[in-house]
């Protein structure tokens, strides 16, 4: 048993001498233990590690229920324990009972000796179990920071309070005015409401068409050319953190590794964190059972409410080492050269550009009606709308994944708001308000389109609820927002974030009125629409629908998804699903604002080849 | 400056009494919208052509009668701006062509007519220019942006003149050529590209997919817009084609008929518009188009694109055999020729010779443009030229003004039953449109049945009136209504060649 684990692994043929040198060199520069690097940077699978140690006579203990002494734990820092996959638990028989994944990690053994002035009593455990326990026992201060940091630093930007008192006063006053108006003069009040809604729709339609046209102008514009990507020197690349927040995504872990391995970026410079919730044994087990090397580091997020993705990301941020940082979902397939493109673009852009958003699209677009519609929507959103917003210098609501940040700026902004369920959109606006800018890169991440209607509605209800939250947060003081983001930003924010939810809420009502008007020709309805209001309403209905359908067609035409073009016609039906989700979101906003409506991934049966960019 | 120049000419002509039926139609409908009482939604939405009408409305706040002229003046200046900007961004370091365009916009009779007549030709030219401009840009860039802008321009073009819907017909075969060109193939010659594409299953799939997609992206917007607009016509006027067939919705129904009747009845024989001769007339009117075709000679599908409008007007001539092609359809070739110069003028090696040829052709066009307008088959166009050249008052609308003056002098609370299908010039010149009972109002039908209950006067078209067959209020109406409503007498109070105003006298 005198042989060290690195030697043992080399003798067993699991680590080549060349890799051995690389791991040791990386360990020296990064401060991480040998075993941490070997298991998390794709050198050896956990199965083989277990096999090798078992053959050498080591026994892996189940340690989750082990007793611990808070006084002992106090003397160890989580990051250190995490880097060494080791954790002292208690003093027993004048020895420090210590969990270790590598019982020969001399540095940690020396740490125990010096800190406690006792010899360690080593229990060998699975690295993931040690990680789980160390985060659970030592992660409290980090998880508290993840939840409360933004609230402490910038309470006005936190969605911890959904409706402020002035907002409630305004909302109820408006409702009261409408109610009184209806009682006093039902017809005139209805006409005024009609006018306001029609005008609002008209402006929203024109604004969206304008944005799409502006965005489509830059169809040929390459933010980063292939040549520039080729010119990127590997040795000059900075460390890059990738956060992968997952919850019960056990089926996707194998795909995830495949996708991450395809990224064209030096392995040692990638700092990939798989953020797993404390109660998510399924995913942890799936990682444990992998029979090939993993290329990510597992971070276990201790239990704390609210249980949201931004909280997990904030927690992961404490352990991140990258100069840049991005988030991917477990099922994401980014273009292989995406990270290099981002690095090249950051180098070209002025300093105040702190975030770069990649386009999102779907690999399972032809699976069913819903995935086709989703693809149409995303093509339009990411290929036309966001570049349009970018060009017009209007705050960009970031997409859920594939947004690449400068780490220091992200920390300065207070990272994500854990109480906001569309933390990405909120962060985009906050960045803009602080004078920072977001750019768009010509690279795509392919996701799995939701292919199941109820799952879709749940996911969309969260997004729309998040948009409502974001709108409420930033409109707490409209004058301040105007001052910070300017008139363009203010109008853009209201028509893009505010109007999106509002239009989905109003759409079915107007459609119902129109159907009644056409089918029953109610004279009452006619009297509520004076000629010019009716004219505007019909214009909105006809021109609005046609144009919105058309811009969707344009977007898929640009993507060369010719087979999807005609599906754009079904958009009015798709918008009704949005409306259902919007009402669900509104209900949840009132009753359960921080509830994270989980989207089930891995439902697609479509094979997802990696999107290799040559 | 150009806009001011046009406005000055337009206002001057207006003071000489020059009006055309199109601008009067817009003036009357504008008055109904802003001053009328009753169900105006049909007038707002179904008056055709829609966009020229709205453009005229925009300027009605300045002056209702001058609004169409102001719109056409500013619109034509806008067209110049579009052409000048595109030209200077494409032809660098050479202002010759720009000066030529300036010269044309100041002195070409056709362009001056477009700008100062108050007709919608300016909008047709703008959107025709934008349509072809974006299409030619799409050929080069292959971007969705340009093809979608082309499609939107086509929609607006159709809503400026519905006949342009037929232009899309000739793009149907052309789209295949466009797709073929946009495929990434090593072969350059079109026929071989087609051969290659059809013999490779993957290329064939791609070709078909892309062709279909281009059809959709180019034509779905016009088709959908027309379908929706026709549905609106159906729901609000019980007729799918109300906007093109009803004299209440569009001025063209009566004017086209009148133009044809007057010309065929004329004793002096003029060069007819025979099928082949239409294209020959185009070339006579705008020889610059030959230069344009020459410039695109090396690219088959682009040359075909330039030739499409020829097929279009030949088709118009066959489809609408009882119509003469108005000046507008010749003017589009002028714009097209300028567009081709923008794209290709600098590719000619011997610029000196080329410039001399272009300058000469432009000078010739000044004469042909003038000649076309002076000897036009359309009376309104001849009348414009006569007013401009002779600078003597134009009397075309005197009769309408005369009747309107009389109506203006009636007591304020008296009401006149008028059918504006034919009497819209009179309604336009009336000071208070509220005094008139017009067909857009629900009580018009009751008014026709029992005029004594709703109105004090009735305006009747005489048998001489060329449009007498298009209105119920003609010389057969009074005898008929006398039978239905005995006890009511009708007294002629004012009479001209084409109109009689009756006063309704109740003798019970």
Automatic annotation (TrEMBL), chain A:
<dbReference type="Pfam" id="PF05157">
    <property type="entry name" value="MshEN"/>
</dbReference>
<dbReference type="InterPro" id="IPR037257">
    <property type="entry name" value="T2SS_E_N_sf"/>
</dbReference>
<protein>
    <submittedName>
        <fullName>Glycosyltransferase</fullName>
    </submittedName>
</protein>
<dbReference type="InterPro" id="IPR001173">
    <property type="entry name" value="Glyco_trans_2-like"/>
</dbReference>
<feature type="transmembrane region" description="Helical">
    <location>
        <begin position="493"/>
        <end position="520"/>
    </location>
</feature>
<feature type="transmembrane region" description="Helical">
    <location>
        <begin position="564"/>
        <end position="586"/>
    </location>
</feature>
<keyword id="KW-0808">Transferase</keyword>
<dbReference type="InterPro" id="IPR029044">
    <property type="entry name" value="Nucleotide-diphossugar_trans"/>
</dbReference>
<dbReference type="InterPro" id="IPR050321">
    <property type="entry name" value="Glycosyltr_2/OpgH_subfam"/>
</dbReference>
<dbReference type="InterPro" id="IPR007831">
    <property type="entry name" value="T2SS_GspE_N"/>
</dbReference>
<feature type="domain" description="Glycosyltransferase 2-like">
    <location>
        <begin position="326"/>
        <end position="518"/>
    </location>
</feature>
<feature type="domain" description="Type II secretion system protein GspE N-terminal">
    <location>
        <begin position="57"/>
        <end position="139"/>
    </location>
</feature>
<keyword id="KW-1133">Transmembrane helix</keyword>
<keyword id="KW-0328">Glycosyltransferase</keyword>
<keyword id="KW-0812">Transmembrane</keyword>
<feature type="transmembrane region" description="Helical">
    <location>
        <begin position="532"/>
        <end position="552"/>
    </location>
</feature>
<feature type="transmembrane region" description="Helical">
    <location>
        <begin position="191"/>
        <end position="214"/>
    </location>
</feature>
<keyword id="KW-0472">Membrane</keyword>
<dbReference type="Pfam" id="PF13632">
    <property type="entry name" value="Glyco_trans_2_3"/>
</dbReference>
<feature type="transmembrane region" description="Helical">
    <location>
        <begin position="161"/>
        <end position="185"/>
    </location>
</feature>
Automatic annotation (TrEMBL), chain B:
<feature type="transmembrane region" description="Helical">
    <location>
        <begin position="120"/>
        <end position="136"/>
    </location>
</feature>
<feature type="transmembrane region" description="Helical">
    <location>
        <begin position="326"/>
        <end position="345"/>
    </location>
</feature>
<feature type="transmembrane region" description="Helical">
    <location>
        <begin position="303"/>
        <end position="320"/>
    </location>
</feature>
<keyword id="KW-0472">Membrane</keyword>
<feature type="transmembrane region" description="Helical">
    <location>
        <begin position="65"/>
        <end position="84"/>
    </location>
</feature>
<feature type="transmembrane region" description="Helical">
    <location>
        <begin position="352"/>
        <end position="370"/>
    </location>
</feature>
<keyword id="KW-1133">Transmembrane helix</keyword>
<feature type="transmembrane region" description="Helical">
    <location>
        <begin position="96"/>
        <end position="114"/>
    </location>
</feature>
<feature type="transmembrane region" description="Helical">
    <location>
        <begin position="207"/>
        <end position="232"/>
    </location>
</feature>
<feature type="transmembrane region" description="Helical">
    <location>
        <begin position="165"/>
        <end position="186"/>
    </location>
</feature>
<keyword id="KW-0812">Transmembrane</keyword>
<feature type="transmembrane region" description="Helical">
    <location>
        <begin position="143"/>
        <end position="159"/>
    </location>
</feature>
<feature type="transmembrane region" description="Helical">
    <location>
        <begin position="274"/>
        <end position="296"/>
    </location>
</feature>
<protein>
    <recommendedName>
        <fullName>Glycosyltransferase RgtA/B/C/D-like domain-containing protein</fullName>
    </recommendedName>
</protein>
């Amino acid at each position: 048993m005198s042989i060290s684990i690195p030697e043992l692994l080399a003798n067993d043929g699991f680590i080549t001498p060349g890799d051995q040198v690389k791991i040791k060199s990386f360990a020296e520069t990064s401060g991480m233990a040998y075993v941490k690097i070997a298991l998390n940077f794709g050198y050896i699978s956990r199965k083989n590690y277990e096999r090798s140690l078992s053959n050498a006579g080591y026994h892996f203990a189940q340690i989750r229920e082990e007793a611990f002494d808070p006084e002992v734990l106090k003397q160890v820092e989580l990051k250190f324990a995490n880097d060494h996959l080791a954790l002292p638990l208690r003093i027993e028989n004048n020895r420090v009972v210590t969990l270790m994944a590598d019982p020969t990690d001399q540095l940690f053994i020396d740490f125990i000796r010096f800190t406690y002035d006792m010899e360690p009593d080593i229990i060998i455990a699975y690295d993931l179990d040690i990680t789980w326990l160390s985060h659970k026992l030592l992660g409290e201060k980090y998880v508290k920071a993840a939840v409360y940091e933004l609230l402490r630093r910038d309470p006005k930007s936190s969605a911890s309070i959904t409706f402020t008192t002035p907002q409630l006063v305004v909302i109820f006053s408006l409702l009261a005015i409408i109610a009184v108006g209806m009682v006093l003069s039902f017809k005139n009040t209805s006409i005024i409401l009609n006018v306001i809604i029609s005008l609002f729709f008209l402006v929203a339609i024109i604004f969206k068409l304008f944005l799409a046209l502006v965005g489509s102008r830059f169809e040929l514009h390459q933010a980063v050319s292939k040549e520039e990507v080729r010119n990127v020197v590997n040795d000059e690349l900075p460390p890059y953190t990738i956060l992968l927040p997952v919850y019960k995504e056990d089926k996707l872990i194998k795909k995830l590794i495949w996708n991450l391995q395809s990224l064209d970026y030096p392995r040692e410079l990638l700092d990939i964190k798989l953020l797993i919730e404390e109660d998510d044994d399924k995913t942890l087990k799936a990682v444990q059972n992998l029979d090939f090397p993993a290329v990510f580091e597992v971070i276990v997020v201790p239990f704390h409410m609210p249980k949201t993705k931004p909280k997990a990301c904030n927690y992961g941020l404490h352990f991140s080492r990258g100069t840049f940082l991005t988030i991917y979902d477990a099922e994401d397939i980014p273009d292989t050269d995406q990270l290099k493109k981002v690095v090249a673009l950051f180098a070209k852009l002025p300093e105040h550009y702190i975030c770069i958003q990649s386009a999102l699209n779907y690999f399972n677009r032809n699976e069913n009606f819903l995935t086709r519609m989703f693809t149409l929507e995303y093509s339009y959103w990411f290929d036309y709308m966001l570049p349009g917003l970018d060009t017009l210098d209007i705050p960009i609501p970031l997409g859920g994944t594939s947004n690449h940040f400068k780490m220091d700026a992200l920390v300065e902004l207070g990272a994500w708001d854990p109480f906001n369920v569309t933390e990405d959109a909120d962060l985009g606006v906050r960045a803009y308000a602080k004078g920072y800018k977001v750019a768009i890169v010509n690279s795509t991440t392919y996701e799995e389109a939701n292919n199941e209607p109820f799952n879709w509605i749940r996911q969309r209800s969260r997004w729309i609820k998040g948009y409502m939250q974001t709108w409420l947060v930033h409109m707490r003081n409209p004058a301040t927002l105007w001052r910070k983001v300017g008139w363009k930003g203010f109008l853009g924010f209201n028509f893009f974030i505010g109007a999106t939810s509002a239009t989905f809420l109003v759409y079915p009502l107007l459609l119902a009125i129109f159907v009644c008007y056409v089918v029953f020709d109610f004279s009452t309805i006619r009297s509520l629409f004076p000629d010019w209001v009716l004219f505007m309403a019909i214009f909105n209905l006809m021109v609005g629908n046609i144009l919105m359908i058309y811009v969707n067609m344009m977007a898929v035409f640009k993507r060369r998804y010719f087979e999807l073009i005609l599906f754009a016609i079904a958009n009015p039906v798709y918008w009704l699903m949005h409306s259902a989700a919007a009402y669900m979101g509104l209900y949840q906003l009132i009753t359960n604002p921080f509830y994270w409506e989980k989207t089930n991934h891995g439902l697609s049966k479509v094979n997802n080849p990696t999107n290799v960019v040559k | 400056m150009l806009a001011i120049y046009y406005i000055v000419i337009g206002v001057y002509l207006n003071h000489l009494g020059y009006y055309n039926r199109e601008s009067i139609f817009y003036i009357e409908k504008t008055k109904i919208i802003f001053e009328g009482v009753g169900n105006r939604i049909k007038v707002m939405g179904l008056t055709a052509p829609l966009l020229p009408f709205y453009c005229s409305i925009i300027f009605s706040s300045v002056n209702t009668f001058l609004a169409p002229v102001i719109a056409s003046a500013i619109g034509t200046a806008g067209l110049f701006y579009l052409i000048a900007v595109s030209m200077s961004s494409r032809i660098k370091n050479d202002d010759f062509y720009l000066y030529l365009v300036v010269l044309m916009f100041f002195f070409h009779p056709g362009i001056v007519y477009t700008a100062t007549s108050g007709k919608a030709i300016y909008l047709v030219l703008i959107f025709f220019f934008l349509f072809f401009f974006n299409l030619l840009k799409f050929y080069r860039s292959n971007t969705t942006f340009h093809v979608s802008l082309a499609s939107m321009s086509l929609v607006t073009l159709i809503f400026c003149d519905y006949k342009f819907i037929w232009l899309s017909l000739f793009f149907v075969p052309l789209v295949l050529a466009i797709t073929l060109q946009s495929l990434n193939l090593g072969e350059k010659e079109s026929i071989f590209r087609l051969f290659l594409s059809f013999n490779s299953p993957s290329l064939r799939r791609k070709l078909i997919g892309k062709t279909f997609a281009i059809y959709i992206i180019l034509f779905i917007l016009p088709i959908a817009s027309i379908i929706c607009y026709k549905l609106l016509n159906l729901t609000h006027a019980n007729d799918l084609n109300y906007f093109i067939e009803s004299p209440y919705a569009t001025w063209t129904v009566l004017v086209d008929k009148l133009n044809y009747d007057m010309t065929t009845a004329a004793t002096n024989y003029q060069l007819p518009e025979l099928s082949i001769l239409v294209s020959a007339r185009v070339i006579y009117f705008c020889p610059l188009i030959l230069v344009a075709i020459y410039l695109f000679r090396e690219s088959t599908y682009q040359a075909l694109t330039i030739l499409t409008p020829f097929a279009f007007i030949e088709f118009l001539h066959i489809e609408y055999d009882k119509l003469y092609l108005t000046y507008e359809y010749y003017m589009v070739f002028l714009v097209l020729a300028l567009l081709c110069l923008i794209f290709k003028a600098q590719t000619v090696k011997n610029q000196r010779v080329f410039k001399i040829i272009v300058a000469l052709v432009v000078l010739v066009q000044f004469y042909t443009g003038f000649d076309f307008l002076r000897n036009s088959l359309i009376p309104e166009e001849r009348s414009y030229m006569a007013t401009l050249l002779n600078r003597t008052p134009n009397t075309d609308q005197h009769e309408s003004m005369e009747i309107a003056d009389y109506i203006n002098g009636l007591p304020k609370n008296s009401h006149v039953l008028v059918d504006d299908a034919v009497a819209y010039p009179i309604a336009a010149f009336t000071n208070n449109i509220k005094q008139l009972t017009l067909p857009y109002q629900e009580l018009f039908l009751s008014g026709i049945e029992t005029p004594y209950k709703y109105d004090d006067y009735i305006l009747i078209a005489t048998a001489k009136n060329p449009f007498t067959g298009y209105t119920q209020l003609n010389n057969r109406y009074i005898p008929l209504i006398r039978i239905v409503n005995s006890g009511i007498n009708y007294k002629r109070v004012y009479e001209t060649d084409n109109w009689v105003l009756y006063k309704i006298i109740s003798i019970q």
